[in-house]
Amino acid sequence: MNGTLKDPAAEIREHMAACMQCGTCSASCPNAAFMDISPRKLWRLAQLDRMDDVVASRTFWMCSSCYNCMLRCPRGLPTTRIMQALKRLAAERGAPGSRRRQAFYRAFTENVERYGRVQESALMNTYLRRRANPVLALSYAPLGWKLLRRGKLHLLPESGHKGRLAPLVNKVREMEGRS
């Protein structure tokens, strides 16, 4: 390693150059129906150096990191990791919607770190506060009320899980160099 950082777009193109366009990633993806273009087509755009089109896509935002594509890829390409790298690249480039999505991911991660599991009311409270849009918050009120009435939403966090993930989160941060 020479100590210089690679251009994220170049690194993505480098991995995708080995893609043979078989479509296994697209066929394996449980979220493909929600993507504006298939993963196979996304990789082709990267191969053609059309990174602006790649970053403008919402395909990688729909990736749930299930690793099906990576497990089934005949070339063993790190497709899930590339999807994650594309999320970071889109945020760096200020792609439309990336700030909103990053805010949700940040709120979700903090929620799991804090409570050891997802606490829906705390998650939405944090996310909507960060969006600073009272109209958006009010638009979720009917759903929240319905879930609350049916006992599916708890206003106060359930105890018992708090802090159990702290050692794991700290280890990941250490491995990523973010301690």
From TrEMBL:
It comes from the Bacteria. One of its GO terms (cellular component) is plasma membrane. PROSITE patterns: 4FE4S_FER_1, 4FE4S_FER_2. Residues 8-40 form the 4Fe-4S ferredoxin-type domain. The keyword Oxidoreductase applies. The keyword Oxidoreductase applies. It holds the Pfam family Fer4_9. Keywords: 4Fe-4S, Iron, Iron-sulfur, Metal-binding, Oxidoreductase. GO terms for molecular function: 4 iron, 4 sulfur cluster binding; metal ion binding; oxidoreductase activity. This is Heterodisulfide reductase subunit C. It comes from Paucidesulfovibrio gracilis DSM 16080. The lineage of its organism: Bacteria, Pseudomonadati, Thermodesulfobacteriota, Desulfovibrionia, Desulfovibrionales.
